[in-house]
Amino acid sequence: MEIIILPTPADVGRVAADLIASVVRAKPAAVLGLATGSSPLDIYRSLAARVASGDLDVSEASGFALDEYVGIPLEHPESYASVIARDVVGPLGMDPARVRVPDGRAADIEAATADYDRAIAEAGGVDIQILGIGANGHIGFNEPTSSFSSRTRIKTLAPSTREANARFFDDPDDVPTHCLTQGLGTILEARHVVLVAQGAGKADAVAAAVEGPLSAMCPGSALQLHQHATVIVDEAAASRLTLAEYYRYTYANKPAFQRFE
Q1: Residue 254's pLDDT band (boundaries 50, 70, 90)?
Q2: Which of 95, 158, 200, 201 could bond to 236 as cystine, CB 3.0-4.6 Å?
Q3: CATH number of 2-258, picked from 3.40.50.1360, 3.30.70.890, 3.40.50.10580, 3.40.50.360
Q4: Catalytically annotated residues
């Protein structure tokens, strides 16, 4: 893992966007793995600003959303289909036909999830996967005890995850109990994964994912197995990292040929 510690959440979004923009410039038809939730919002805002200024063109890129609620109407403002359209596709000028979200309304869930993994493979795989991390260490909606080899599938949301997501709904009881999520095995097939985290509430999860043992109790620790994982966090989210000073030193002295800014 490469660990980048930055002063503020806005800096996290900017540097992650620098990295993603470099991938798209090198490969205009790149396949992007799109996360939802609050963690990646600064990334999308920073990318949108570049698109608006003419500095970046994402119109040829395609995307695969990380997850979707089960049973929520497509038009619901908090369905991830709606969120991706509102926060990503529109602001970045992406072609909606090139962006796919798991079908949480499918009559045959197993067929829908198998089809989703197949579609990712047929697209050539994900070039760069954006990730956040939950306070319990989940990535995507892979809750604790998820298999590191898991594929896209249906999962029951942990009570803590439903509680964390209740802020997006009018009533906490409206938060769905199930979701479709790319599995850890699916996520690990992306060529590059970029995890962002902000705030002290994510500090324990970040420390467990980066420096803790490989454990199904912290699904984010699976990223230790990835050959190209970048973790970008603010100072608050880095506060429990034992080797924080080393990570700062390493990033400050990164060879010029490895920089993406």
Answers
A1: confident
A2: 200
A3: 3.40.50.1360
A4: 67, 136, 138, 143
